[in-house]
Specification:
This protein has about 280 residues and is mainly α. The protein has a domain of about 170 residues: MetI-like (MetI-like fold, Orthogonal Bundle). Helix 1 runs antiparallel to helix 13, helix 2 packs across helix 13 and helix 10 packs antiparallel against helix 13. This is Carbohydrate ABC transporter permease. It comes from Paenibacillus baimaensis. It is found in: Cell membrane.
Amino acid sequence: MPVGEKQNVISRIIIYILLAAGAFASAYPFYWMLVISTRTRDAVYQIPPAIIPGPELIANFTHALERIIFFRALWNSFIVSGATTVSVLFFCSLAGFAFAKFEFPGKKLLFVLVLGTLLVPQQLSVLPNYILMAKLSWIDSYKAIIVPSMVSAFGIFWMRQYIISSIHTELLEASRIDGSGYINTYWRIVLPIIVPALATLGIFTFLNTWNDFFWPLVVLKNNENFTIQIALQQLFSRNDSIDYGMIMSATFFATLPLLIVFALFSRWFISGLTSGAVKS
């Protein structure tokens, strides 16, 4: 075997080993969660630790259902995450399209201001947002969670960069010559091309909204309106020892929707599909 080819083989083996190690490190916490969710509460302290799932998954989950309104909280998270994701995709794609392909007074300054909001920590906006939600009488409602998150500065930046790189101006000019308006051009030409970017932004938005804990904890008061993250927090009791099997079983079933969403859209998320509308 030539020296160059031998070095390529060794390099590939090293890369595969590193990738396998990274995949194992990423997947092991989920596997450990599954193992603990199928064991009794003492399994987490067991030495050596259990590495094979046990028979207690249904019993632990049944115990969790007695403590929290699990399926109601799951439905609440679906509504909040779904509505937030749809609104972010719609408004951010429109704003990104405008910033990428249109010229208007103050465009650069406005875009800099949008990016500047990324530098503001979420905690600084909690008090003014809470006061605004209280004045609108939206406390303890879905609107208090959905409306402040309907537009994302990162989403605008992401869509702008993707549209700049994937949609050529000549294509839009040809559409205008054919008599298409801005909305028709967006719907028939821009939208089909930016599907991969929309899928990626949608996954990020859905995951972040689903996993959000701080803001829902601030604005939600009624158990009936709790999202799944707030409901899971109720499983930690101060009066007795923590039942990790029960907590992990509920967490396992709360994680399944995220895995399903990623599986449905991973084809667009992982592969770029297309990098432009016109090939040079």
